Amino acid sequence: MKINKSKLWALGASVLIIWSCSNSEEVIPDLNVPEDEEDTGEVVIPLKELFEDYFEIGAAVTPQQADLGTAHGQTLRKHFSSITAENVMKPDALQRVKGQYTWSSADQLVQFAKDNNMLVRGHCLTWHSQSPDWMFYDENGDLLSRELALAQLEEHITTVVTRYKDDVYAWDVVNEAMFDWDPAGVIEYREDSPWYQMIGETYIDSAFVYARRADPNAKLFYNDYNSIFSWKRNKIYNMVKRLKDNNIPIDGIGLQGHWMVNTSEADIRTTLDLFRSLDVEIQITELDIPVYLSSDEPGATVYNDTFSFRQKMAYTMIFDVLLDYSDIITNVTFWGIGDDHTWLDQPGRKAFPFLLDEELNPKPVYFEVQKLVQNR
Ligand code: GLA
Asked: Which residues form the GH10 domain (predicted)?
């Protein structure tokens, strides 16, 4: 029998209330928790082992974190089989000044991955954001010609992909090209992107061709957010179908996975079913689930039982779905390692979006996910 989800939420909420009322004589917990064990005595199975029969499990990282002399480096090596550069492979990081590439940070990440037997997802080659102005504008501030823009894009993609040929196994070739906040579904492409304004939508096609020429073996992805909403998933579907119909080399779709604790299971499943019909690989490329129900909810700086309950519900639902689609999902990457470092934090409002806490220890939600996988 399927349990109605809203009933589960209500049940959980009342359990939380009863628990907090009956908890007046608090037992002081034993703080000497043995390494690798939570106070429940549960053994931690590293994420990459937990999911090894299903998909690679990754994290977005900074160069400072990719260092075995740090807790972050040790955690990466223990839990993750794949890394993505949070920023240092973006166009403005690699080629801020035209013709002058700065490789050291990206090289460091790639070396860390090699030393520790991890895969690297390359992120990203073509994007309207975090790209240097010279890719878009001349010295008068006018948009470049289509020819010059394409030549520069080709040069950038060819240089970057060639350097990391055989080291980067999958590239986000184009990031966020589709328009959203458009429930009527009228506008297909993000028309405020300089790429679109200079070239039209075929800049997407060209980027994939340049990437394939530079590395015939890399997996080439289109990556976007809000992809599970009906209006956006249909646009992504149409665009990828167009590419495939025109023999443009695309291997997969990246769903960023900046989801919410109340994200709809049906939306995720419908999207995965739709994309499955395109015969492409799927990767969840930037997973994080902040603890709030909406942006209106007041912020907090301490992780509480309500947050924990919400995340248990959300993460177990999400991983249950992802496991159901593990024949097409090849990588699930978190957009960070632990709750100490996330783009979602604001002053007075922490997001706590991961399975590992601010000290990089497994949260209670981690053990729920672990149980889920073990029971399948
Ligand atoms: C997008 C980009 C990422 C990152 C996140 C948030 O999803 O693809 O590179 O910038 O936003 O920081």
From this structure: 41-372
